[in-house]
Amino acid sequence: MSTPLSDVSEPRNSEAEDDDFAREPIRGSSLLLLGRLMSLGVMSAVQVLLVRHLSRSDYGAWTYALSVVVLLQSVTALGLDRSVTRFLAIYRERGDLARVRGLVLLLVGAVAGVGTLATLTLISFPEAIARITGVDAHVLAILNVIIFLVPLEALDLLFIGLFACLGQARAIVIRRHILAPAHDRL
């Protein structure tokens, strides 16, 4: 005996659930776009203020020190900021929460440890750094002040990947587009 098709229907989601499911990614992406636009505006305003109020040599020293921080930030991240999204998604999909916690602890510990080691090295041997790079004392003084951003920025890259994997658009917007321009340029 065959059954009519109307009797063998699968339960459907209601239209309200379909709308919520479709709107959630749109809300997240529009929030990310708005955050990116705000970030660009704040960064542009801060750059204009820096250029207007610093002399040429001071601005050059600032940008040199900031470029060293950005270089060391990407080196101390060890590429782990890109791998967190891959492995965290795999472990989370499998439901292996112990591995998720272990992965996060391992990555945060490794990035924080290498970043702190790089920071302590630059602070401990300023004469050797000045000799190797050929920078003057003014640039080295600025570098010694902002070098503490190296482990923080490397951890920031790691947490952006973590937030992206966990699907928290609001956390990404606040961290990357509101807080980041404020401390990247100041």
Number of helices: 8
Range of strand content: under 5%
Order of helices and strands: HHHHHHHH
Taking the alpha carbons of the first and last residues, their distance comes to 77 Å
Whole-number count of domains? 1
Number of strands: 0
Low-confidence stretches: 5-9
Q: Give helix % range.
A: over 70%
What about the largest sheet? Answer: none
Overall pLDDT confidence: 76
Structural class based on helices, strands and sheet pairing: mainly alpha
Shape: flat
**CA-based gyration radius:** 23 Å
Descriptive terms for the model:
8 helices; single chain; 186 residues; mainly alpha
How would you summarize the topology of this molecule?
Layout: H1 15-53, H2 56-76, H3 80-94, H4 97-124, H5 126-133, H6 137-146, H7 149-166, H8 169-185
Helix pairs in contact: 1-8, 2-6, 2-7, 3-4, 3-7, 4-7, 7-8
Structure in words:
The chain has one domain (19-83, 109-185). The chain starts with 14 loop residues before the first helix and ends with a helix. Helices cover 84% and strands 0% of the residues. Helix 3 (80-94) packs antiparallel against helix 4 (97-124). It is built from eight helices and no strands.
